[in-house]
């Protein structure tokens, strides 16, 4: 059972109140207008949400991974897009804390903690996101060896128009064998040679932008390599993705919670054949199954978060949490539509949004097919479940 400190329980409660009072009343309008939630993001800055992963001396209020997961779930319960607005940001903060040079940490982390600087990560390319080692974005040492020239393209990069810092996964040695030894993370900013070429139209995850980025002769300084040493980027990013997968799993829990809450409420209000519909066994069974799988998903997320907090690698646990929670969110979102009948298909209710948002957690941060692959490899490497 996860035990948060009193301070951490207060953090989660503060975000829950924010979601209930300030997010849920406006979310449907923002969603359908596909409006960037400027005011809500400002409030998230004030609440310290962007600094949750930044420790002293750069930040003030870092929280444990279980607390971070619960905050993420609360935000996603209000609007998955809000959790998305701080997801990549947190992964980049964790990367800087774990691997950055002191200079990189001092430069970026204080402003990331306040949300003044927001960060995202750029991994996926038009040619594919699952096989990252096949990436074609290359950073070559420029003529006088005083920096890099970057060429290539990335796609689906969320928050990239509004993020000042982009953790770019690219090849600094395209000929390296094994291929991952030629991969580095470059800390890049917007500037000449980097074009945000397109905002991609999406099924859900509205409000926040997911874009194509084109690097064409973009120049990055020599000290842009995360940690200052080339060839470590793949391993660094795989560690970062453990945070990312816990974050995505927590988002799924938040969406599933919202869908379940709406279904439970509606099933008590709506009547047919002279009684509330929850009293029809088929509907009651849906609610029972939703609550059971939601509780299991939440526990898996907390299990992964606790493992992370213990300082151990948690790729197996984060993969299982992400796989189960996202598939659960999808099923619960569909079942919430069933419970709502025709209203479930209406854009005047929220359940259709959960149904559009849920698939992202199946695909994002490594698809669930890739998660199964990670899980199977880890099971063999660890000799089974602990
Ligand atoms: C809304 C949205 C936001 C996103 N935000 C970001 C972001 O901020 N930064 C970022 O870098 N990326 C982001 N992504 C990209 C996302 O991470 C990729 O879409 C995802 O990793 C899958 O890559 P792909 O789309 O190229 O699919 P592909 O790699 O082309 O895969 C296609 C299908 O083949 C399957 N497949 C591929 N290889 C294997 C294998 N070895 N075994 C089994 N099945 C396999 C996949 O599971 C999938 O079903 C975002 C995507 C979306 C939709």
UniProtKB/TrEMBL annotation:
Names of required cofactors: FAD
Keywords: FAD, Flavoprotein, Oxidoreductase
Limits of the Acyl-CoA oxidase/dehydrogenase middle domain: 121-216
Gene3D superfamilies listed in its UniProt record: Acyl-CoA dehydrogenase/oxidase, N-terminal domain (1.10.540.10), Butyryl-CoA Dehydrogenase, subunit A, domain 2 (2.40.110.10), Butyryl-CoA Dehydrogenase, subunit A, domain 3 (1.20.140.10)
Chain ranges of the Acyl-CoA dehydrogenase/oxidase C-terminal domain: 231-379
Domain Acyl-CoA dehydrogenase/oxidase N-terminal: 6-116
Range of residues in the leader sequence: none
InterPro entries recorded: Acyl-CoA_DH_CS (IPR006089), Acyl-CoA_Oxase/DH_mid-dom (IPR006091), Acyl-CoA_Oxase/DH_mid-dom_sf (IPR046373), AcylCo_DH-like_C (IPR036250), AcylCo_DH/oxidase_C (IPR009075), AcylCoA_DH/ox_N (IPR013786), AcylCoA_DH/ox_N_sf (IPR037069), AcylCoA_DH/oxidase_NM_dom_sf (IPR009100)
Pfam families: Acyl-CoA_dh_1 (PF00441), Acyl-CoA_dh_M (PF02770), Acyl-CoA_dh_N (PF02771)
Coiled-coil annotated residue ranges, if any: none
SUPFAM superfamilies listed in its UniProt record: Acyl-CoA dehydrogenase C-terminal domain-like, Acyl-CoA dehydrogenase NM domain-like
Single GO molecular function: acyl-CoA dehydrogenase activity
Annotated family: Belongs to the acyl-CoA dehydrogenase family.
UniProt protein name: Acyl-CoA dehydrogenase
Species in which this protein is naturally found: Geodermatophilus saharensis
């Amino acid at each position: 059972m996860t035990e948060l400190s009193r301070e951490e329980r207060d953090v989660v409660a503060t975000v829950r109140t924010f979601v209930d009072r300030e997010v849920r009343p406006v979310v449907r309008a923002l969603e359908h207008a596909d409006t960037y939630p400027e005011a809500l993001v400002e409030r998230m800055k004030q609440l310290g949400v962007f600094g949750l992963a930044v420790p002293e001396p750069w930040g003030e209020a870092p929280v444990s991974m279980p607390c971070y997961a619960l905050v993420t779930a609360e935000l996603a319960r209000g609007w998955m897009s809000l959790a998305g607005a701080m997801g990549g940001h947190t992964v980049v903060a964790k990367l800087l804390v774990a691997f950055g040079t002191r200079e990189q940490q001092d430069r970026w982390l204080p402003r990331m903690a306040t949300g003044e600087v927001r960060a995202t990560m750029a991994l996926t390319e038009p040619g594919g996101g699952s096989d990252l080692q096949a990436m074609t974005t290359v950073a070559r040492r420029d003529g006088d060896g005083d920096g890099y020239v970057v060429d290539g393209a990335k796609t689906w990069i969320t928050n990239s128009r509004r993020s000042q810092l982009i953790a770019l996964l690219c090849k600094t040695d395209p000929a390296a064998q094994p291929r991952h030894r030629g991969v580095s993370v470059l800390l890049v900013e917007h500037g000449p040679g980097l074009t945000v070429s397109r905002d991609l139209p999406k099924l859900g995850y509205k409000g926040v932008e997911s874009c194509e980025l084109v690097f064409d002769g973009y120049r990055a300084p020599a000290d842009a390599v995360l940690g200052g040493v080339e060839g470590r980027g793949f391993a660094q990013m795989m560690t970062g993705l453990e945070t990312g997968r816990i974050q995505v799993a927590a988002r799924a829990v938040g969406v599933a919670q919202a869908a379940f809450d709406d279904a439970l409420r509606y099933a008590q209000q709506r009547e047919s054949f002279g009684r509330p519909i929850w009293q029809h066994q088929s509907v009651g069974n849906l609610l029972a199954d939703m609550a059971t799988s939601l509780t299991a998903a939440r526990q898996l997320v907390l299990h992964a978060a606790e493992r992370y907090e213990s300082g151990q690698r948690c790729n197996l646990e984060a993969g299982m949490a992400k796989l189960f929670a996202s598939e659960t969110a999808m099923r619960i979102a569909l079942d919430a539509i069933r419970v709502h009948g025709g209203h479930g298909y209406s854009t005047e209710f929220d359940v259709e949004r959960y149904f559009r948002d849920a698939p992202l957690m199946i695909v994002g941060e490594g698809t669930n097919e890739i998660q199964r692959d990670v899980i199977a490899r880890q099971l063999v490497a660890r000799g089974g479940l602990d």
